[in-house]
Design brief:
By secondary structure, this protein is mainly beta. Helix content is 5%, strand content 55%. The chain contains one helix and 32 strands.
């Protein structure tokens, strides 16, 4: 009798505890009600990146991993001190983290595991583009060569920028031609633009060239111009609800695939970074953090920490980084 009673109580207890277990993670959301959460004081020397449940921050000659949402230090990796290395890039590559340190001695590329332990390290005396990681691989362009992991192929002398999406590798020659290649180095197409290309952003349908005084969208398959707008984008665009969101000198606009404007918002400040969630977007302006829905209707506005230059969504909140870090938790 005692045994049966204990078993019944144990079963009920188990069911009760299971029903009261950890609640499912909150989704990524830009339209939630946010409150200020934890803060940290790491002055980032490059763009921070989300990695699992952590924020990886480049800080001078080191990499620091902070937990989310608490921003508690988890681990730290320090580059050798002999060359004055400064971290300028971190990015995920599968289950690893790739970081690039630069100094007058060139580039130092380091691959770390998810606990910050060094897997490999490579010193290159020449500075190339900052790498891009895509599908677990590392890509970069250096002069007349594109590197895909340890393999390389020849290209015309190119600017230090590279983009990857859907098997296409995009580079820009010093003559101003955007070129698309496959991973074997075969030229798929070239598109010569009159305006100087300052940056590229690749999507599944094509690549967007951010030029001096215009923004140009090129078809992924042919390189033909899909549309061109006399807009100087102030940061990299993002996709949101099937629209392309472009930041300009005082706000945001949403364009359809034909380049027609569908929505717009005047933020009364110049966006320097935008980030998308499934239901909306967040923008960093000077002194402001603004969240909006899919139609760019303002949802909330916060005072951004001094020096804030990026915002990222994570399940249950968003985190701002720059001269310091601050979490905003979804209620």
């Amino acid at each position: 009798m005692t045994t049966r009673t204990f078993g019944a109580v144990s079963t009920l207890t188990f069911l009760f505890l299971a029903s009261c277990g950890p609640s499912p993670a909150k989704p990524l959301s830009a339209t939630a009600r946010f409150v200020e959460g934890a803060s940290a004081g790491y002055h980032s020397t490059g763009r921070a990146v989300l990695f699992g449940d952590s924020l990886i921050v480049p800080v001078e000659g080191s990499i620091v991993s902070l937990s989310l949402p608490g921003l508690e230090p988890e681990w730290r990796y320090d580059a050798p001190t002999d060359k004055g290395w400064q971290c300028v890039y971190v990015g995920p590559a599968g289950d690893n983290i790739v970081c690039v340190f630069q100094s007058m001695a060139g580039d130092l590329t380091v691959r770390l595991d998810n606990r910050g332990r060094e897997i490999l390290k490579n010193h290159n005396e020449k500075m190339g583009s900052l790498p891009k990681t895509y599908s677990g691989k590392i890509y970069r362009v250096e002069g007349e060569s594109v590197f895909v992991e340890e393999k390389k192929f020849a290209v015309p002398l190119s600017l230090p920028m590279i983009e990857i999406n859907g098997g296409n590798i995009y580079t820009v020659t010093v003559e101003g031609e955007i070129q698309a290649r496959n991973e074997s180095g075969d030229l798929l197409w070239g598109a010569k633009l009159i305006s100087r290309t300052n940056n590229l952003k690749a999507f599944s349908w094509g690549v967007v060239a951010l030029c001096e005084n215009e923004t140009i969208a090129l078809d992924q398959a042919t390189g033909s111009v899909l549309w061109s707008k006399p807009i100087r984008a102030t940061c990299q665009p993002v996709e949101l609800g099937g629209k392309l969101i472009i930041a300009y000198d005082k706000g945001l606009m949403a364009l359809d695939r034909k380049g027609d404007m569908v929505y717009a918002i005047d933020l009364e400040c110049q966006p320097i970074f935008i980030s998308a969630a499934p239901d909306g977007i967040a923008a960093i302006c000077t002194g402001k953090l603004v969240t909006m829905d899919l139609k760019l209707t303002k949802i909330s506005e916060f005072v951004a920490p001094d020096g804030a230059n990026q915002v990222e969504f994570f399940p249950g909140g968003m985190v701002v980084s720059g001269y310091s870090q601050r979490v905003f938790v979804a209620e």
